[in-house]
Amino acid sequence: MTKPKILLFLHGVGDGDPENRWQKTLESALMGLGYPSLSDVIVVAPKYPKGLNGVDDEVPLPKVIAKALRGDEAKAHRRDYERRRTAMERLLGPDDEGEGLPGANAAMPLALDFKAFAQAEKYLNEPKIRAWVLDRVLKQLPDAGRVVIVGHSLGSVIAADLIRRLHTDLEVTGMVTLGSPLAHKKFHVDDLRTNLAEPPANLAWWVNFWSSVDAVAARRGVSSAFPWVLDQRISAPVRQALSPL
């Protein structure tokens, strides 16, 4: 039996794109490059902007399910992961971690105090909100299938936080993040740097796209925190790159 194909999109702060404009843009771009449409793909795009502003219901933090690999099993998985990473690098071009924005780590805690970043600050620091968001995403996913995760900005943090909590029958065939703030240690909720020191057992590859004019990415990719991630630098107009988390 063929496993269903799933696309999970995790949005950043703001209204969550209620009209799903991202999906129309993505599908148009894919078809323009000669790829098929998303007609046979289950598209899951949970909306959680109200939850990021505050929740009344308390739900438990979803448990970590992904198997922690050890010894030879861990080495074998890392070798397989590196082969897939190399294949992606050949397709997309060489890795570009970026030079980093001086003082970015010191400035980010201050930035989180601004209204535009308030939702991100709440996800990071209010366990009730974080648990609610993760629970909402998991409840909308099928129990089994082959899933590609796309996370934009704060959505990339949610994706990294979510991946080890997915159902064991969900195979993550790839993860794409855009404009991610995960290079900042401030965003390593639940000590992500330690918990993702190695690629999770259920993840095939992770590619992160960043722009040098994106203040959120602070002129660097996320491989400064997770060396096994493939970073790809892109050119983007300032008005697009300076989008909120």
**Portion of residues within helices:** 25-40%
Strand content: 15-25%
* Average of per-residue pLDDT values: 89
**Helix/strand order, N-terminal first:** EHEHHHHHEHEHEEH
Shape: globular
Low-confidence stretches: 238-242
Count of discrete alpha- or pi-helical segments spanning 4 or more residues: 9
In whole angstroms, the N-to-C terminal distance is 39 Å
| Structural class computed from helices and strand pairing | alpha/beta
- Rounded to the nearest angstrom, the radius of gyration is 17 Å
Biggest sheet statistics? 6 strands, parallel
User: Count the strands?
Assistant: 6
Helix/strand layout:
Blueprint: E1 5-10, H1 21-32, E2 42-44, H2 49-53, H3 71-92, H4 104-111, H5 118-125, H6 127-140, E3 145-152, H7 154-162, E4 170-178, H8 192-195, E5 206-211, E6 230-234, H9 238-241
Parallel strand pairs: 1-2, 1-3, 3-4, 4-5, 5-6
Helix pairs in contact: 5-6
